[in-house]
Amino acid sequence: MICMRRGKTLIALLLAAAMAFALAGCGKRGVTAEDATNLVQGNLDEIYLGVFDPDFLKSVNITESEAEETYRGGLETETEYFIYYYGLEEVSDELYQEIVDLHADIYSYSSYTVQPATEQSDGSYAVKVTFRPLDIHVQVNEEWADFMTAFNDDYADVDVDSMTDEEYAAFWSEYSDDYNRRAVDLVKSKLPTMGYGEEDSLVIQVILDDDGYYTMDETSFQMFDTMLLTYP
């Protein structure tokens, strides 16, 4: 049975962590509060908006093509979680790319403000980010029970027990494709009405890693990533 998987699980956090590890630091030197602020601003703009500021790229020593690769990787990360969350099966390459492009559209509505960094006693920096969570999946959740009822009703008369293995394989492929298509279309239908949850804030830590580079702390970035696009 196909079903929605509730809540962001360890899988989602591991995917977010993989994306965070790819972020560059500010170089093998000390940084100022302004540097730390710009690091968070530049990384968030790169990951969620696909905006690559030339000064930011220079400060972290990456090219625009490398930044674009990170951005696309982030969209693919969210696509993998989307597929898991909505229980999609046997996703075609074409539909996969459609979901990637859908997340580019969703994240283009990201609303956040990076506050000036505050230096901590250990030399790290605390950067407060205020944001409004994107609510597209909350809207989908409100219609999900009716969606599944209608979908299951369309297959209520199917007798899978009487099928041969070959017939069942063909049926399952058609069934999965139909579910995948309808689920993606339902989410896409909410783009015009997508809004925001209540404004929230979170502190992203900028820390010195073991290689001597300043980077966004994995845990605080994971939390921000989880909260920005809300999955009920």
Write the layout of secondary structure elements.
Blueprint: H1 10-21, H2 33-49, H3 54-59, H4 64-85, H5 93-107, E1 111-114, E2 118-119, E3 125-132, H6 136-154, H7 165-189, E4 200-208, E5 214-216, H8 218-228
Antiparallel strand pairs: 1-3, 2-3, 3-4, 4-5
Helix pairs in contact: 1-4, 1-8, 2-4, 4-5, 6-7
Characterise the protein shown here.
It is a single chain. It is elongated, with a radius of gyration of 21 Å. Strands 1, 2, 3, 4 and 5 form a 5-stranded antiparallel β-sheet that branches. Strand 4 and strand 5 form a beta hairpin. Helices cover 55% and strands 11% of the residues. By secondary structure, the protein is α+β, with helices and mostly antiparallel strands.
pLDDT averaged residue by residue? 87
Shape: elongated
How many distinct helices? Answer: 8
Q: Specify the helix fraction band.
A: 40-55%
Largest sheet at a glance? 5 strands, antiparallel
Short note summarizing the structure:
It contains eight helices and five strands; from the N terminus they run H-H-H-H-H-E-E-E-H-H-E-E-H. It has helices spanning 10-21, 33-49, 54-59, 64-85, 93-107, 136-154, 165-189, 218-228; strands at 111-114, 118-119, 125-132, 200-208, 214-216.
